[in-house]
Amino acid sequence: MPSIIIASRNPVKRQAILRGFKQIFPGENFEITAAEAASGVCDQPVGDDETRRGALNRLNAIKSQYPQADYWSAIEGGVADVDDRLSAFAWIVIANQQHMGWSRSASFFLPENVAELVRQGVELGEADDRVFGRQNSKQMNGAVGILTRDAVDREELYTHAVLLALIPFLNPTLY
């Protein structure tokens, strides 16, 4: 059974990785292990570069801790200012011994009261909890789930990007 190490103990991220792998490799069973790994960036990364770097740093950390795994994966959520509005998104990176795949999730704009807290240095999940009166929303439906009334939740948002990050593994001769 192929093993996947994910650089997070967040159940939403774990499920997104597992769901993506199962969709791309139907009929295959995977053993997935959650591991802590430092991002080496701010708790709330800002911009594509910092967010992508955080995902790669996490992946490299778990690759060192679990060199025997078949796959390593990391998801890093970030924010970016776009025309004076704050958008949220995530970067996903997946690797095995031969290939590495990357993808960025779709993005969405945050309400100004959430964005203001994030700009003050509050991590997005904490800002959501404060504004929407929730607890631990980042390990549930996240800001996107709250704002879309669960038409799109955090797991679904990440799963699409996981599927795209797995393209090199489906097409190894092209990558």
From TrEMBL:
Enzyme superclass (EC): hydrolase
Membrane-crossing residue ranges in chain numbering: none
Enzyme nomenclature, EC number: 3.6.1.73
Co-factor requirement: Mg(2+); Mn(2+)
Chain ranges of the Non-canonical purine NTP phosphatase/PRRC1 domain: 7-170
UniProt keyword annotations, A-Z: Hydrolase, Magnesium, Manganese, Metal-binding, Nucleotide metabolism, Nucleotide-binding
GO biological process assignments: nucleotide metabolic process; thiamine metabolic process
Co-factor: note: Binds 1 divalent metal cation per subunit; can use either Mg(2+) or Mn(2+).
GO MF, any single term: nucleotide binding
Positions that bind Mg(2+): 68
Endpoints of the signal sequence: none
Catalysed reactions, as listed in the record: ITP + H2O = IDP + phosphate + H(+); XTP + H2O = XDP + phosphate + H(+)
Subunit structure: Homodimer.
Biological function: Phosphatase that hydrolyzes non-canonical purine nucleotides such as XTP and ITP to their respective diphosphate derivatives. Probably excludes non-canonical purines from DNA/RNA precursor pool, thus preventing their incorporation into DNA/RNA and avoiding chromosomal lesions.
Family stated for the protein in its record: Belongs to the YjjX NTPase family.
Protein name: Probable inosine/xanthosine triphosphatase
Organism (species): Leptolinea tardivitalis
Record lineage: Bacteria, Bacillati, Chloroflexota, Anaerolineae, Anaerolineales
